[in-house]
Amino acid sequence: MKKVLVAGATGYLGRYAVQEFKNRGYWVRALVRNPEKAKQPGPYFAPAIDTLADEVFVGDATKPDTIAEVCSGIDLVFSSLGMIKPDFVHSNFDVDYQGNLNILNLALKAGVKKFIYVSVFDAHRMMNIPNVQAHEKFVKELQAAKIESAVIRPTGYFSEIGQFVARTRKGYMLWVGEGYQRSNPIHGADLAKVCVDAVDGTEREVGVGGPEVYTYREMVDLAIEIGGTDPILLPLPNWLVEGAVAVTGLFNRDVHDVALFATNLSKMDIVAPQHGTHRLRDFFTQCKAL
Length: 290
Ligand SMILES: NC(=O)c1ccc[n+]([C@@H]2O[C@H](COP(=O)([O-])OP(=O)(O)OC[C@H]3O[C@@H](n4cnc5c(N)ncnc54)[C@H](OP(=O)(O)O)[C@@H]3O)[C@@H](O)[C@H]2O)c1
Hints:
Bound molecules: NADP nicotinamide-adenine-dinucleotide phosphate
Strand order of the largest sheet: 3-2-1-4-5-6-9
Helix content: 25-40%
Radius of gyration: 19 Å
Distance between the termini: 38 Å
Order of helices and strands: EHEHEEHEHEHEEHEEHEHHH
Shape: globular
Number of helices: 10
Number of strands: 11
Largest sheet: 7 strands, parallel
């Protein structure tokens, strides 16, 4: 039986990855910072992992002494370890780059056969964003290392738009730009399948999005229809938000970087090869019950 390390196992994608590896007969070690978190379900219906994983390994990837043995006996590493929201302690380079590099170095020492890493779709169009720079700096290290690898490049996850229905029900909905940009967000379970397929795949880079393409405005309209409300819609002009982002950068770098991501996404289509079966309508309907 192949043994896999899942890093980022308490995250939205990581939880579905643990589940999918188990469904396919792997032995799974889950790297978590907080074992209590592993016992609880994750955001937007992602499963609890303490009873799914064969072993819960407690460690912090930014502190090498806490993860020294994390790759011992492991055949394969899957990492969706990353920082998607500011935590005011670490930078993206500490986590997305250095944290993953610490694991890669241990994987090389332990003779791990393959390392599957999750970055972002079309990263080359977003290299002004520190989060993307950190991901891609790690991708360079990974692809130069003497180990087989695959880089998964997804669009946005359903978890990022899970709050849409709740927000429309609060009576207002803000967004940046005109809302005409198109994307195909993906459910964690669908993405996890593509990630596990990459174990036996030969592609070094895998672009992946969900089965349906929507404009941002269409996603908002769907959330309004399902929420059954009539909220005030407040599209914010790009120039206004960009000004606010620039000012934020003067006093809070982390919030600035997340806001920069949002403004970038509001200006470009992000449509990746379509995968999976989970529909946004069903997901929003589930979210309505939260
Ligand atoms: N969300 C999206 O729409 C999206 C789109 C494209 C690509 N991505 C990329 O996909 C990856 C996963 O995204 P996600 O939405 O699943 O993120 P997430 O829910 O925030 O999960 C991130 C995981 O990394 C773990 N982690 C962070 N710092 C750590 C550290 N120092 N040591 C050990 N574990 C640590 C977190 O642990 P804790 O639970 O303890 O915090 C969590 O398990 C990220 O790299 C993200 O940039 C995300």
